Amino acid sequence: MKNVKKIISAALITLFATSLIGCNMIEKTPEGIAKTEVAKVFDTKITKGQIEAQLPGVIKQLQTQYGANYTTNTDAMTELTTQKQKVLAGLINEEIITYKAKELKLVPSDAKLNAEINKQLLEIKKSLGTDAKYKAALTQAGVTEEALKARIKPSVIQDALKTETTKNVKVTDADAKAYYNANLALYSTKPNTIHLAHILVKTEAEAIAIKKRLDAGEDFAKLAKEKGTDGTKAAGGELGTFKFDDTSMDATFMAAAVKVPAGKVSTPVKTQFGYHLIKDVARTNYPAKKFEVVKAEVEKTLLAKNKETAWTAAMTKWTTQANVTKIDKNL
């Protein structure tokens, strides 16, 4: 009798183990992997498959840069993980926006959605010039036209929700005048210009050490040639002359540069490239236009900023309400 019990017990253990193996095999099929949960928003699952659906273009770029065996390259896989996290962040926002739009009954009708999607699709085609270039762009991105339409749809819903959320945002005369006074350089009679030089290094510690030497009286150009790490070092860090609102330069860099007093050198400024010491070699400032002349422009600019602030606040509130959970290991 005891032998029979042992046989039954052994059979049950074998059956249980086999069932577990079976589950793992299902999990490891492409279909099972695609269904793997990577996040939850308002109790709605975001799956690995949704992430993967947006990665063909990224993978093509990685293959071009690192070769067919890009998965064996650490830098390539780090970049892929970064891109996956960006896609996930976008999908989380889309889920939050869709949930709130449905809750507030702001999702456009199918007819309006399709009309706006087709309108934006037409604008994309026009921007690319020819149908051939449009199709080439789709191929390069690794998406079909239907997939592109699907990506446009959330933005249409977002526009409807954002319009409703920010419709009561206003700009007072006092607000407009205060903004004008704080940003006179934006409304000069001619574009203000600034002649810049910089020293770019990898770490903040290096930048601080160089700044101390500059403050002690050492020559900027000499130190740029000695310590600089980019292509400007040979020319003593010379960058040239730019308008205050120049968009060809890094935005963080320019925002810091225009605040440097004439003839002075900034404290270390961190950008995507490293740490900069920025010298204002010379600048040309023109007088500002009268407030009355630019009032409408100021109000338009400030209204857009205030609406963006209101939208950001709303999204922050909704994100908290969404009780977002992420499972990064499943990415």
From TrEMBL:
Residues 1-21 form the signal peptide. Its EC number is 5.2.1.8. InterPro entries: PPIase_dom_sf (IPR046357), PPIase_PpiC (IPR000297), PrsA_foldase (IPR050245), Trigger_fact/SurA_dom_sf (IPR027304). The keyword tRNA processing does not apply. GO terms for molecular function: peptidyl-prolyl cis-trans isomerase activity. It catalyses: [protein]-peptidylproline (omega=180) = [protein]-peptidylproline (omega=0). Residues 191-282 form the PpiC domain. Keywords: Isomerase, Rotamase, Signal. The keyword Isomerase applies. It holds the Pfam family Rotamase_2. PANTHER family: FOLDASE PROTEIN PRSA, PEPTIDYLPROLYL ISOMERASE. This is peptidylprolyl isomerase. It comes from Clostridium estertheticum subsp. estertheticum. The lineage of its organism: Bacteria, Bacillati, Bacillota, Clostridia, Eubacteriales.
